[in-house]
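Please fill in the sequence for the structure shown.

STRUCTURE ENCODING:
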């Protein structure tokens, strides 16, 4: 049971990227899925989450209005569309299955962690 993250890269400030989180070995229909990020020297933090039931979403204040999370259960994949990227968004981005209320409370306790995908925002 694991996720595979992809879509990261080097982008200039103000640019956009779309990250993908593909589930391997299980169906993610019944799980809330969250995106986390970890910058060098910092703790891993939750940035967004999407519920399994009604598709409700959560965004950290630092990304609200710039990032959009979505899911395509037919493709067993969750996406994170990132726009207006800033240098402080630079981090390794991970996805995991974790309920959104705990992500909102800054708990990092999901499962299915993959290797992550590096996002670097720099001119």
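FILLED IN BY: designer on duty
SEQUENCE:
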């Amino acid at each position: 049971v694991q996720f595979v993250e992809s879509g990261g890269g080097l982008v200039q400030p103000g640019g956009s990227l779309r990250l993908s989180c593909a589930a391997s070995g299980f169906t993610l229909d019944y799980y809330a899925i969250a995106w986390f990020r970890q910058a060098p020297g910092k703790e891993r933090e939750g940035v967004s989450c999407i519920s399994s039931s009604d598709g409700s979403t959560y965004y950290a204040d630092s990304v609200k209005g710039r990032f959009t999370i979505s899911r395509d259960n037919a493709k067993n994949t969750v996406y994170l569309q990132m726009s207006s990227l800033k240098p402080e968004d630079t981090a390794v981005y991970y996805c995991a299955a974790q309920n959104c209320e705990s992500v909102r409370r800054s708990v990092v306790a999901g499962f299915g962690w993959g290797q992550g995908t590096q996002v670097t925002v720099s001119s």
